Amino acid sequence: MPESPALPTCRFQSFSEPTDPSQVAPRIAALRQELARQGLAGFIVPRADEHQGEYVPAHMARLAWLTGFTGSAGNAVILADRAALIVDGRYTIQSQEQTDTAIVTPTRMEEMPLDRWIEANLPAGGRLGYDPWLHTVDGVAKLDKAAAAAGGTLVAVAQNPVDAIWRHRPVPPAAPVKAHRGDFAGEDAAGKLGRIQEALTKAKVDALVVSDPHALAWTFNIRGGDVEHTPLPLGYAIVPREGRPTVFLAPEKITNEAGDAIGAVGEIAPPSALTTQLKALGAAGAKVRLDATTAASALATLIRDAGGTPDAGTDPIALMKARKNNAELAGARVAHLRDGAAMVRFLSWLAREAPKGGLTEIDAVAALEAERLKTGLLKDVSFTTIAGAGPNAALPHYRVTEASNRAIEPGILLVDSGGQYEDGTTDITRTIAIGEPSAEMRDRYTRVLKGHIAISRAVFVKGTSGAQLDALARLPLWQAGFDFDHGTGHGVGSYLSVHEGPQRISKLGTTPLEPGMILSNEPGYYKEGHYGIRIENLIVVEERIIPGGERTIYGFETITWCPYERALIDRALLDEGEIAWIDAYHAQVWNKLAGLVEGEAKAWLESACLPL
After folding, report:
1. Cα 181 from Cα 173, distance rounded (Å)
2. Locations of Polar residues compositional bias (predicted)?
3. Which of 90, 37, 67, 182 is nearest to 399 (CA)?
């Protein structure tokens, strides 16, 4: 029997199956024994580490280890006689496939959120355990209310029971902490700290605990490598209203250059010193701001028990970081030109090779990463590439593995990917027709494209939030009775997370959009079991001058450059303004990228950018 051909490999991504559903039953059985030993009726296992980050290091991936579910959001509740895995609509199918549904019941958050599930299922008198380092102050308040409504009690555990049964647990990450170049940062740490301390004075608080590693990295102009695909150093800082801050990072991880940079503006202490300093702030009666979205409940308890006042609210760094300065925007534009050229080379290769047959999703992922590597400047992919063929494209957060790898056959291939470069973070989705698409596919693609264009062309008054714009992307789909179950757009960092808050374009996006914010524009359509469509560019909020206007008006600058899929566009569904916008965009794509590609890629680009 001949050997199977070797699968291509990637530097930054793997295709192994991350979890094994057969391990769910024995692990949950072991956890139930441990809960009984600790006198608990149940335990909540969130998909979280102590920083509430989107990506968690391997040794903190408790939810994945226990239930098999590897999505970016979810909670499990394990009781003696039942267990639920509560996820949002993005992960309905994935959760069913990855866990053992005989033991764990996948539950849609939209139909039964975590607190309601607890209220309905926790037995009267039951002690429900939680790890206070893995839940926020507000989150614990909701859980406490739910447990009380069930006639039970919420109990903070000193030792996480999952850790007690987790054999061969990975070691914590120890990636080096490096300095981020000043010409890319655009502002030194001293200037940022001055602005943060002004905000603390205005808020009438004595100190800020920086619990979000993105905020830590941005404030001190440092980057790390403690989680996948995002250059984060996992650590904390305390910034007093006056005086020098303290950064809590393992000293052995800090390079000399980063140590000098931090040392110029603050002190460096080991992570174990955080508890001592928080207790000291509490003993001094300090009012300490905690980031309501990322700060662990345990931090508030330490401050309160020592006599201080924890103040859960907005971390002022979040908005500062979201509003990119001129250097960060210039870097993002350059990074997107480089990345766009890599995309064109990839799409040109795909157009030549896919019709021959024999390609798989893994081949596509590897080829695209290889094109980005050719830039010589790629530090990592900005997230695991989504390359979904056929029905896999209908899974918005699909991750190809050796087990799921599909052949790229006539139909649709959806590729959502991005790169991490020191000057910028990219994120782009293109949906590609393989062979002749159906009329239905062309209809759905064009409706998604119309929504994408509506966001791109939007103008809006100062103070407008993403929630107020979200419907623009959905209207062409709504008119035909369709929709999509994710937000239209998320914020994007500057050589930081590809998913950054607080800015977003979604029904939940209440933060006003301000100049300098980078967001994605990515409406979609998903026909379960058949195909999926998504189109994504990154956009920047900018001020628009309207002659004769009376209000401050904003719009979007598009910074992603790559052709749309002509074979999927139904021209009859577009109005003249939309056709003109597409033609103008393609003319810009040609002007910006033609000099960055050559040979077959340049010929493909020229054809792809012809007027409709």
Report:
1. 23
2. 11-22
3. 90
Are 390 and 410 contacting, i.e. CB atoms less than 8 angstroms apart? Answer: no
The DSSP 8-state label assigned to residue 509 in this structure reads -
Torsion of CA 558, 564, 569, 571, to 10 degrees: 50
What confidence category does residue 451 fall into, taking pLDDT thresholds of 50, 70 and 90?
very high
| Three-class DSSP category at 242 | coil
Rounded to the nearest 5 percent, the helix, strand and coil shares of the chain are: 40, 20, 40
> Amino acid identity, residue 551?
R
Instruction: State how far Cα 401 lies from the chain centre.
Output: 20
Is residue 1's pLDDT more than 50? no
Six token digits for residue 536 = 């994504």
pLDDT at 2: 43
What pLDDT is attached to residue 4?
52
Q: Based on the number of CB atoms within 10 Å of its own CB, is 423 exposed (0-12), middle (13-18) or buried (19 or more)?
A: buried
Which has the closest alpha carbon to 123: 87, 160, 77?
A: 77
Among the residue ranges 5-14, 293-302, 308-317, 524-533, the one predicted with the least confidence is 5-14
Q: What is the torsional sign of CA 281, 285, 287, 291? A: positive
CB 245 within 8 A of CB 193: yes
Mean pLDDT of 72-99: 91
Give the model confidence (pLDDT) of 263-297 as tens digits.
Answer: 999 999 999 999 999 999 999 999 999 999 999 99
For 105, counting Cβ atoms within 10 Å of its Cβ (0-12 exposed, 13-18 middle, 19+ buried), the class is middle
Residue 450's nearest CA partner among 429, 423, 479 is: 479
3-state secondary structure of 210: strand
**431: nearest Cα among 441, 418, 419:** 441
The pLDDT of residue 507 is above 90: yes
Q: Say if CB 554 and CB 515 are below 8 A apart.
A: yes
Q: How long is the chain?
A: 612
Task: Calculate mean pLDDT across residues 322-339.
Answer: 98
What pLDDT sits at residue 6?
A: 72
Give every CB contact of residue 379 below 8 A, 6+ residues apart in sequence.
Answer: 231, 419, 420, 421, 422, 495
In this structure, how many other beta carbons lie within 10 angstroms of the beta carbon of residue 170? 12
**Which domains are assigned to the chain?**
21-165 (3.40.350.10), 178-322 (3.40.350.10), 326-608 (3.90.230.10)
CA distance 272 to 249: 9
pLDDT for residue 133? 98
Reduce the DSSP state of residue 18 to 3 states and report it. coil
- The helix/strand/coil state of 130 is strand
- CB-count exposure of residue 311 (10 Å: 0-12, 13-18, 19+): buried
Q: How many CB atoms lie within 10 A of CB 133?
A: 17
Residue 177 contacts residue 224 (beta carbons within 8 Å): yes
Alpha-carbon distance of 266 to 237, in angstroms, equals 10
* Strand extents, DSSP E, 467-607: 489-491, 500-505, 518-521, 524-527, 531-534, 537-544, 553-558
